[in-house]
Batch of 2 targets.
Target 1
Amino acid sequence: QTVPEELQNGGGFGYVVAFRPLGTVSWMQTVVASPDAARYVFRNESLPPFSPYEVKVGVYNNKGEGSFSPVTVVYSAEEEPTRAPTTVLARSLSASDVEVSWAPPWESQHKGRIQGYEVRCWRHDEKEENAKRIRTVGNQTSTKVTNLRGNALYHLAVRAYNTAGTGPSSAAVNVTTKKPRESCQTSPCQVFVEIYQAQPFYFIFFVRFFLVLYRWNRQSSTSVIETNKTSVELSLPFDEDYIIEIKPFSDGGDGSSSEQIRIPKISNAYARGSGSSTSSACTLSALSTIMISLTARSSL
């Protein structure tokens, strides 16, 4: 972040960028002469992907040099995963839900990290490019796919992802959802989540998108929706407690999570109304305030 003009204390103001590979002793330095500069790119074709560097930034003007910032660790850009997840399994839970699980790919992590997995799900009579996509976060190796058609054949495939992109897809597996019950079917709750950024306006320009994480209150597995908007609509079963969190995502990775939002379970009678009709859906709204804490960007 640049130094305001009133704190530059003289002419000829600029920055000194010092950096070194993590674990080494000698610092490399370069001068950035513009007081408005907010980034510096160090290029080295022999630099391995996802290499850690220590970085600090100092200031100077015509009177001499000032102090340096605290040292922080940044990483060179990583490569996308090169192998697919293995042992993909799917099972039907109900007429509208299936569970899919997988094993991590056999891949050395020196080229980068696996930040999560993307599950694609498409009906047999649909095109694969129109598949429904669900992203998990971290080392989670199973997730639930919801809002599917009953008694229908689906194909599912999984691939790993990181900040560089997604890796190759696993072979697709097939699963057929259960037949719907003959009794009345219920409608899901439509949950509207609005995101409020509790930071100065200039932080908005560093945010590439938001991650909306939601899960059953009684389970640890988390589903993720990626959006570049400040609102999102979720379709959740009305008979389960849900926990929702919001994370901003910048070039340096994800920032701090919002406080958890609990969407309480709603009784069948409330969700469907007191009469015999089953078509009406409940509507809830939630406001998430996030204090954006951006990590250092991934390129030096």
Target 2
Amino acid sequence: QIVALNKTKEKMRPYQGNQEDEDPDIKKIKKVQSFMRGWLCRRKWKTIVQDYICSPHAESMRKRNQIVFNMVEAESEYVHQLYVLVNCFLRPLRMAASSKKPPISHDDVSSIFLNSETIMFLHEIFHQGLKARIANWPTLILADLFDILLPMLNIYQEFVRNHQYSLQVLANCKQNRDFDKLLKQYEANPACEGRMLETFLTYPMFQIPRYIITLHELLAHTPHEHVERKSLEFAKSKLEELSRVMHDEVSDTENIRKNLAIERTIVEGCDILLDTSQTFIRQGSLIQVPSVERGKLSKVRLGSLSLKKEGERQCFLFTKHFLICTRSSGGKLHLLKTGGVLSLIECTLVEETEAS
């Protein structure tokens, strides 16, 4: 068997032996041919690469990569903002609330910051995931990160729903001189860069819309056959749905608070403002002009008004009612006893075209 194997090897050797005995000129010709083939191949490859670099697909991919890089930078900045909110305000105020003479209660701290710390932890995880994806560049897979993020975004609903209330509680707490002094010390921290606590509390409000814009831009530069296309479209649709829900909730909450704020300014109160479907439209002052004819005045009279003097009325327009109030010398508002609350459902609007 060994002899047979050796014979087989011997049969394969002559080609190599012939190469060694080959004419030097033939070797030179083959070397030149090899060089020319390599040069032609490299030139063709260079042309292919240059054509691709100038192609619309490559330009789209460059823009897509730039969007992803910008997203990582924006996420890094947002995580830093949340870090400042939690470490320069939330945690110090928690400690202050546990002191012997607390300038703020634990309930107020919870009302102002709500789940800010949870949001920070969530985005720290998301940011680490983004950085890990960038480390594998040029392969960029992002859709699974949004799959992780989406189920946890309900915490944003709570924060957004609570936002106006948190600012209101903070404004009330600032009436306490000790708290106001302490807060100014925290805001003087170099990490805050001259920004107030209200500014940091507002940052999370814009994060969901920012993600939606980023996904719109990503999809604009993602081919239809791309492996991530469907996942990114699903993430965008879910974020848009969440954004609409949060917008509606914020609008409803702000409307209720606005109605209650107006109701509190009226000395007698106003039950119709406790209707949650009653939407505030605008407010302002109107001049009530007295009629010249005494008989006519008695028919259109709204409260006691002198025949010789015009009266300024503070008016509030809602979707269902129109309120007319007088302002006392102390600045308090009083509903007119007669005609102070007009139901717009039963009203007829008459436009007087004649100047007289």
